[in-house]
Amino acid sequence: MQNLFRLGIFYISAFIISTVPSATFTEGVTGQPESFFPSQAVSQTDKTISHLIYRGLFKYDESGELVSDLAEDWKISEDGMAYTVKIKKDQKWSHGLEITSDDLIYTAFKIPEFSGIATDKIDRYTVRYSLPTKFSPFLSFLTVGIMPVNAEEKQNPLMPISNGDFQVISVRRDGPAVRKIVLQNKDKSAKFKKLVFRYYSNEEELLLGAKL
């Protein structure tokens, strides 16, 4: 079910980016954002934004096939219980630092699905995941967004350091309530440049806002 959700999010994101002709797409939603960290995102909107601003070791392509993203190379042990993954070099966080195996280990420690899985650092760019039992679809778990070390402890969950195609550039509040969040495409040559999420207290307010 979780993998189907991730695949669904991919198609939603791809649909928005490929079909909206203007440079900015605005989406109205009810409720409040809580966190865009992959380890903490709960609501559908939070998970959608998390998917847009974070990359994983693998991803689903347009045809629904699992392909590499941050992963450069990987090996599976003969017994199917150890996965060794090497990430591409020179992959950067939004603040300019390089993504390393320390970030993979931190992410695995924070993601509930990795409970019981040992994650060992081989070198600066390589980790080994050791499973307690054989689990053939494990690579699909590695589509989860990678977070930088100490993200939960030191970063704003609504404006985190990220590594995806989009980055949160603005959070506008009305008192304690978030009213608007803006994501910007890091590829300045891209046709689709911004995503704007407007937050409303309830459905009635949302419908009224849509008419304005």
UniProtKB/TrEMBL annotation:
Keywords: Signal, Transport
Taxonomic source organism: candidate division WWE3 bacterium
PANTHER family linked to this entry: OLIGOPEPTIDE-BINDING PROTEIN APPA, PERIPLASMIC BINDING COMPONENT OF ABC TRANSPORTER
Name of the protein this chain belongs to: Solute-binding protein family 5 domain-containing protein
GO biological process: peptide transport
Highest rank taxon of the organism: Bacteria
Transmembrane segment boundaries: none
Domain Solute-binding protein family: 65-204
SUPFAM superfamilies named among the record's database cross-references: Periplasmic binding protein-like II
